[in-house]
């Protein structure tokens, strides 16, 4: 939230986008990228744990950037559902990324309008 107060909504969105890029690329790794997809995981437990672990990394980024546990928990659920859809082949990579970045834009609006407490 201090990013919003000090630098404004655009800077907050930029921080969310950076956090997303870090979590989706260097912090994900080959193992999570593969096993977060049900068809690629060896077991149901491996799939659920991998998808949840990846989503938790994203949730942590949102929490750190925003200071909001509520938005962090929201990101956990939304990221999990969006990646579930991509992993099941309901849509592709571009749609997946647009959905994720759209969530970040919504978080900025909610924070900027004071609709989410930190």
TrEMBL record:
UniProt xrefs under Pfam families: DUF3307 (PF11750)
InterPro entries listed in its UniProt record: Phage_phiKZ_Orf197
Protein name: DUF3307 domain-containing protein
Species the sequence originates in: Luteolibacter soli
């Amino acid at each position: 939230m201090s990013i919003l107060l000090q630098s404004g909504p655009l800077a907050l969105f930029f921080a969310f986008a950076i956090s997303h890029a870090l979590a989706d690329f260097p912090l994900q790794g080959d193992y999570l990228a593969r096993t977060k997809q049900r068809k690629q995981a060896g077991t149901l437990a491996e799939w659920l744990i991998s998808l949840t672990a990846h989503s938790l990394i994203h949730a942590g980024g949102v929490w750190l950037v925003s200071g909001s546990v509520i938005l962090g928990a929201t990101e956990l659920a939304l990221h999990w559902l969006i990646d579930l859809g991509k992993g099941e082949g309901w849509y592709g990579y571009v749609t997946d990324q647009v959905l994720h970045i759209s969530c970040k834009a919504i978080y900025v609006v909610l924070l900027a309008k004071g609709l989410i407490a930190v």
